[in-house]
Write a structure and sequence with these properties.
Blueprint: H1 12-18, E1 27-28, E2 32-36, E3 40-46, E4 55-59, E5 63-68, E6 71-77, E7 82-92, E8 96-103, H2 135-152, H3 158-171, H4 196-224
Antiparallel strand pairs: 1-2, 2-3, 3-8, 4-5, 5-6, 7-8
Length: 231
């Protein structure tokens, strides 16, 4: 077994640091170690050797309390509100309580508990991974990345491709001057930006045409229908 051998040969201070969580975008205080992302805070509190059932963690939206064997280890008002249903904790190695607090508001915390040592939030590493954004924002980012890649390759942007698709559909529409001829995208000016109003107008026309077609079909059915002669 390798238990107890991790960090052998290293300075005592280094071995101690290896036993703690990362303090990325957080700090080390005399009470705990902590780190954070925009969405959550991770907190590690040192306790005397115990079992998990001897730990009591009470977390409300605004306050946090940790007790070990009935003794208060940490207590205070949280810097910002948290979502209590997403609060999780575990006992690590019998001497460290590690908590994960989900922030109600995505913002950088200066400290975990009010009155504790604060960090300079202007110096935090604020890079976010794609999955930290909501679905709408992820879609917008992917669109920008796609358009940038298309531009580098000299190809049309996503809006221009969308416009071309609509134009192709309208190419053979009734009263179109191009009706009956092969679709030729070079005859369309797709180099400029396309406003959302354009797409909204197209969608409205499609809905209106579908409504008229449905009404016409219903009228035709009623004209040709009817029961047999009366007895």
């Amino acid at each position: 077994s390798q238990e107890g051998t991790e960090g052998q040969g290293l300075p005592e201070g280094t071995r101690k640091m290896m036993r703690h969580i990362s303090t990325w975008n957080g700090a080390v205080t005399d009470k705990y170690h902590w780190s954070q992302s925009l969405a959550e805070v991770t907190l590690e509190v040192e306790v005397e050797e115990c079992r998990a059932k001897e730990i009591q963690v009470v977390c409300t939206a605004t306050r946090l309390s940790i007790k070990c064997k009935g003794k208060t280890v940490l207590e205070g008002k949280l810097h910002e509100k948290v979502s209590t249903e997403d609060t999780m904790w575990h006992l690590d190695g019998g001497t460290q309580v590690v908590l994960s607090l989900e922030k109600q508001r995505q913002t950088w915390w200066k400290c975990v508990l009010e009155g504790d040592q604060e960090i300079d939030t202007t110096k935090v590493e604020s890079t976010k991974t794609m999955d930290e954004y909501d679905g709408e924002t992820q879609g917008a980012i992917r669109k920008i990345m796609f358009d940038q890649n298309q531009k580098v390759q000299g190809k049309p942007s996503s809006d221009q491709l969308r416009t071309a698709e609509i134009m192709k559909e309208a190419w053979n529409a009734p009263n179109s001057p191009f009706r009956g001829s092969e679709f030729d995208p070079t005859m369309l000016n797709l180099s400029g930006p396309v406003s959302e109003d354009f797409f909204e107008d197209v969608d409205k026309r499609r809905i209106e045409e579908a409504r008229k077609a449905k009404a016409a079909a219903a009228g035709s059915a009623s004209d040709g229908g009817g029961g047999g002669p009366a007895a």
